[in-house]
């Protein structure tokens, strides 16, 4: 399945006048305030977010899963799905694979398919939290942190294998999310587990190709409910420092204790040059993996404000890898991702509108009320016409959800794949 | 101190053209979507929020308090402060007194002063969480829930006295916030404390004038750190039901455990006709009492969406009493309140833009993605021109904070009251 | 599989002397303090906790499940498992079935089997949060709260069917845990959902046999991540009141927002005669469903202190139904349950040791430090000899976990059922 | 005021027989399990906890403070109070001063007085979160992190002064608790604030006497309610590393987000040799500063289990400084501290009983149920006779609270100091 560019253009036609009027209005307003609107629109176009292969089918909870019709059955179909999203949004120009769920058989064909959708391969993800059928060892009691060297070695080898696969595809980074931990007090020795993890990560690290990066993700709980080996940014940062300069911390929005100030963590990491990647989602209670921006859009804006500041002021930090990491339990997964991309772009655009010069002045003056006014001036602006403009300039849809529906993408996927298709890896 | 209407008009002059352009743009857009813009603007003008007398001076924490210059030293000066806020915002047409911090001496003069500012007296608040100097009994171990009848009676009498004072001023409701609880397991008997509270509230209730209402506030913790007698909406609702039809639950945004879905509580209470009042503020960690909308503006919008729905569909619920209940530790208290009022009006305006018909259709269709689109369509709209219009029509300032500053209100207050004035009650 | 009583007795032999010494010591100490030790031991023996049929196999998370060898494949095998636990602990004299996971085929045989293990049938549980294969309707968007009458009716009928099944087996109560809610703002209309739920519950309620009770469970989130229709005790209490005198609230320890004071909720419900049942487990982050007492044993003691108080002072409240509701992701499920039972009995025993007379006096005197001393005097007592005595008197094991291991129960289950058996319903 | 040793001995007389019986019982039991009881008792005697000078008067909340009679009015009286606690408990052999609240006038006299109570001077604490009267600069907008160099320098100088004072008294460490942060998004630049803090700490660090240590405390929120510069252990650890080998992280139990696994943080810090100090208290909601062990005694035990492990296995970590940091809003402050000390000793004693060899074996075997059994075997043991023995051997009271009351300590303090005395610094 591939969406025809012309069809997108056709759906844009009837909204073009409205878009031009609203863009004209807002561009005029912003220009009066000294903002280079073209720059903002260009930055929006440049901002590409990877889609993880596992988010294209329906997700679920421990209480069950309600499948979704037309789910992609193969890696090729997953790439097609990302291609469809990218065609509409022009923001999803990358896919992030999960091994062993997405083992490519024919690398060349896969790369050609991705290229035909203008999609590149972002960070590859290893899996040491589940046991494949007939596995030689079990990750039930851990992987990189396991007390048994054989299990650790198995997990290290798996990660090396994932790097090889990624290398074939053109990926440049490995993301390690480690579920290792304990569900009960006393189950593990914290210090041993940390030391083993450090050693295992180091073994993986030294096999990284020269232009690769290692992203170390952290998470306070789930699937373990007492402790997790890499429980917070401090632990990840420490491990990354001990690995070397190609190792970085990866921040996932949902992987924090209640009320954590995430934008401050982002700022600290960028100051130290150690923010490697960022996973977007939203949540109200735990790692709920909801649509980005569906619960706390202002927090997302504040995080983007920190990210924009870091991208402009912290040359010591490499350009971060962006990915959506959400679970689509109840919505059409593709619509869910399109909504997430819209929310990301919106938050980014608003952060770009923050008058950093004025903000800095107000901070120096301790004019706290004015600091808030400056942030909210940007946040309250309706930036949707800027997003539309950016998409329009690159052949995307003015209104991606509407286009997705009017082009009957889901219906076409079902026709192609059937009602009962189940995404591989789920 | 009183702000001259003409001076406000003067400050509006230079922004008028800009306002007209932006209002024209948004009014046109909304009208195309079938929204009655005049209705929205009128509703914004009708929405009046009470300012509590204790929020006009600087607040503090247990670690100390940094005072603010020009704080109101008397009830009269507090009314002047609210008058200044109301003159600029046209949204603060009421004051909520706290007894014994605001004991009026000359009722007639106080009422005349308030009337001269177009301010009415909203709910009166009793205080049984502190001991006045030389008090006959101590509230150290509780008040309405105390095991000792003498203390309970003292607290009941105080509440009756507060009603009398409120009655003289034209108030129509009493808000009871009960700090009673325990800081340690075992300190109190939960059932006894609840029974005593019920009995005490009933005694207060039966003395309410016929057209009055009793608001029962709840809070999970602070100043007690193990339990609070009225710890949640369920307890307040139960107590209100047992008092009678003039008793209601009062919701304070900051009085919830982490992650509580407050809009659902609001909906339930309005369905049952028991939402009496609402206290606005914002918070990230606990009852932080920050500026409304400064942390979670989308949550505020969702709450307003529930409130608007209830006001339109729940005739069984009386029109709620609105109040800001924030603490201004670091900003100019008046600027802080003005920012809060702006955030409230913004959330209200956006909630008024929600297409309830479309939303209901999408809900019936279980079109979850569309439900979100509909809410976010309203939320993403820049409604500031509507707020400006509403203020402008009633003699308020297009940009209240800017006007407050250009009119040098704080400087005038300091000139009048001195650098070291301390608000009574603090 | 059935554990021979004689075998248990044999395992007890070598610990008998030690037990007698420790029991003698503690009995003497307690007697000196005026405690009737025999009464305490008798109460421990009388305290029976239901085991849910779904907790006998390994649980899992959305990230996967590591199975456990020798899982019970049928209802009969599940009853055998509970029988084994009961034989060892003498505390698990009931099983709680989940329909449709445990549909009995031959009622008479099932009842005879249970009787042979001295096990009765506790509350039956309905399931409207998953779709059985080829279901006529889907619960994807709700069940008792669904907007579509056909789905609601289907869910109501299912509950009626569950009552019928329970009635055949001798159950006397139905537990309704409703997963209904929303994962996104706007997805549902709170008021409609609540009204529909009320109506559906009422329909179920009126078909209850005369000596039955309806337990209405609440939970703030999961599997829905924005709102849950019955989100807290207040909502459950309100619904139970509207159903009638045979409807009650059911409290599950893990179904609360962070930091909730659960013992206060228990006290309020018992005061109002509305605590119907209680589900035991433990947790650190959310509804983690860990072994009872493994994380917060003092909180469990405080809850038991409230339960003991209610059982002694609130004749208006019926004797509650007790059940363990935990998930055994990493331990042998039977060992996990045995540990839970030990923790429950321990907390209960300690609560029975609280000197209620002294506590009441200290509360009257506001002697807060002494209130704490009294609770901790009970809590710090090592009550294990009392538990041993209670088990010994009824043929149980002095040390159930040790006996379980020395009798090689798991090995026998694997021999009987195989390494790869999977519990039905998982 | 000084408690006569003979009087304590007298109060012990009537409980001696009971103590001997219970100690004999438990010592016998433990010896059978291979535990060196004398070692445990000796370790308890060696474990000394500092009492902070500010915890000897009543604490309060932002809603007010209920004073306590007989509060110490001067540093001398504070030392007397700690002396009384130490005489009874033999566990409080140190005091921790807070400057400027406890400025000594006559060093020699102060040192002699402390020596007469067998009390040493533990870490000294600086205060840059309040403005002294007529201060040259204000800490309203920060201190060590302030944007204004003059304020930073003032705060640095204050810390240097505190070191000098501590040096005179024999202290060997400085604790820096930095309240700096922001109450609103945008108020500060995270990176600038962190850099300035680093620079200021470094300036303080380089003036440390050769045998001193610098403790850097962290806290997520309060008194700032949006962000705190040193918000978590990761930030403190990073700052300490950047200062040098004499800089350490200080952990305060109450300074964590909900559900944080504190024992894991402790383990990580000790592994890295960076745990400098530990502040004890307890809490249910936030930094509630309640009596140690009054809410979560099992969590305290787990933390002590990590501390004991670290003290035995991490020579790279210096012996940590222990302090109680609680607020006594409702109990007699001295009784409150005595209860805290009892809870600390209890948790320590139980942690000492953990069979580390068996635990390690069970961890290697992934015998999760057994790991729990081993921890709970220790936790469930009633260790009070061991604490009694330890106190008895050093002249303390068998039952400190009872002795405190029977010796009428509070009455004597009131006689000496009056009913309305207020502790300096409050």
UniProtKB/TrEMBL annotation, chains A, B, C, D:
Classification via InterPro entries: L-rhamnose_isomerase, Xyl_isomerase-like_sf, Xyl_isomerase-like_TIM-brl
Q: Keywords in alphabetical order, please.
A: Isomerase, Manganese, Metal-binding
Xylose isomerase-like TIM barrel domain location is 102-288
Name-wise, this protein is: TIM barrel protein
From which organism does this entry originate? Pricia mediterranea
């Amino acid at each position: 399945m591939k969406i025809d560019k012309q069809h997108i253009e056709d759906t844009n036609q009837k909204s073009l006048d409205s878009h031009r009027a609203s863009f004209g209005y807002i561009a005029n307003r912003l220009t009066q305030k000294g903002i280079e609107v073209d720059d903002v629109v260009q930055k929006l176009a440049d901002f590409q977010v990877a889609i993880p292969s596992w988010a294209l089918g329906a997700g679920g909870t421990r209480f069950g899963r309600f499948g979704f019709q037309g789910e992609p059955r193969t890696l090729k179909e997953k790439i097609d799905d990302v291609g469809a999203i990218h065609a509409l949004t022009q923001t999803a120009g990358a896919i992030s694979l999960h091994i062993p769920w997405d083992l490519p058989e024919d690398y060349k064909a896969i790369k050609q398919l991705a290229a035909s959708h203008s999609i590149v391969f972002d960070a590859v993800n290893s899996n040491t939290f589940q046991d494949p059928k007939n596995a030689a060892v079990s990750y039930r009691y851990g992987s990189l942190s396991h007390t048994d060297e054989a299990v650790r070695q198995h997990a290290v080898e798996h990660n090396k294998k994932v790097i090889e696969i990624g290398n074939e595809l053109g990926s440049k980074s490995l993301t390690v999310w480690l579920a290792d931990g304990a569900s009960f007090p006393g189950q593990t020795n914290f210090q041993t587990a940390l030391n083993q993890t450090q050693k295992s990560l180091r073994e993986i690290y030294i096999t990284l190709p020269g232009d690769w990066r290692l992203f170390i993700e952290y998470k306070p709980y789930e699937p373990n409910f007492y402790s997790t080996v890499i429980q917070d940014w401090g632990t990840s940062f420490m491990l990354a420092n001990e690995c070397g300069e190609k190792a970085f911390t990866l921040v996932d929005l949902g992987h924090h204790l209640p009320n954590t100030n995430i934008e401050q963590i982002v700022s600290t990491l960028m100051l130290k040059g150690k923010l490697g990647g960022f996973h977007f989602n939203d949540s109200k209670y735990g790692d709920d993996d909801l649509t980005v921006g569906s619960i706390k859009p202002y927090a997302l804006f504040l995080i983007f404000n920190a990210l924009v500041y870091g991208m402009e002021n912290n040359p010591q930090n490499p350009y971060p890898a962006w990915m959506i990491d959400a679970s689509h339990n109840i919505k059409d997964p593709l619509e869910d991702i399109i909504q997430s991309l819209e929310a990301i772009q919106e938050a980014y655009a608003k952060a770009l509108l923050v008058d950093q010069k004025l903000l800095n002045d107000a901070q120096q003056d301790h004019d706290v009320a004015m600091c808030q006014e400056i942030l909210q001036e940007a946040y309250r602006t309706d930036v949707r016409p800027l997003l539309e403009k950016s998409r329009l300039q690159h052949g995307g849809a003015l209104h991606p959800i509407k286009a997705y529906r009017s082009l009957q993408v889901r219906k076409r996927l079902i026709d192609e794949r059937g009602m009962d298709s189940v995404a591989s890896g789920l």
